[in-house]
Amino acid sequence: MAPSQSPSSSPSPSPSSATIPTQDLWPSGDPPGQNALDDAVQKVKTAVSLKYAKWYSGIALQQPVGPKDQTPYAVLVYRVPNPALDAAAQAASPTTKMIFIDTKYSAVQCDAVQSKVSKDVGYWKSRGLSLNSWGCQNGLVDIGITDPAAWKSALAARYGADVIEVEKIDPAQLG
């Protein structure tokens, strides 16, 4: 989903998919100010996750991965659009840049779908599909299976195409 326009922020591309050479990483492994960002995340999560549960979808950090990375520091707040939630999040950490990202579903709604997926493990197994992973993340339920092309439409028909994301995940290797 696209980030919403907020007076306090504008979205920036994240280099997360790029391979960063080790010499370009932070010497400590963490960017400067990591503790302050972690604190901001906790404050925002505490301020909005319960009071605005019908709208709150998740939270993440946006930060540079190394000294040469120009990605700005920000807290990403995933939510079904709600101005009161946005104001509460910003008030919880007023000096932190916030980027508000629209989602269609709240974490509460995704948890309900995830519970149904959990209860359906036997149903899918009896049809020849092993669910290798599933979980809620930022307004969607991620379902990991070995062959998404063969099963995506069946999963979408059962749970809703707009609330799930099906991806290739092989079974965990035990040992």
List the helices and strands and how they pair.
Elements: H1 34-48, E1 56-62, E2 74-79, H2 83-92, E3 98-102, H3 107-119, H4 121-125, E4 133-137, E5 140-145, H5 148-159, E6 164-168
Parallel strand pairs: 2-3, 5-6
Antiparallel strand pairs: 1-2, 4-5
Q: How many structural domains does the protein architecture include? A: 2
Outline: globular
Determine the number of helices (DSSP H or I, runs of at least 4 residues).
Answer: 5
Gap from first CA to last CA: 38 Å
Q: What proportion of the residues form beta strands (DSSP E)? A: 15-25%
The major sheet is characterized as: 3 strands, mixed
- Series of secondary-structure elements, N-terminal to C-terminal: HEEHEHHEEHE
The low-confidence runs, each spanning 5 or more residues with pLDDT under 50, are 1-21
Give average pLDDT, whole number. 85
Secondary structure category? alpha/beta
Number of strands: 6
User: What level of helicity do the residues show?
Assistant: 25-40%
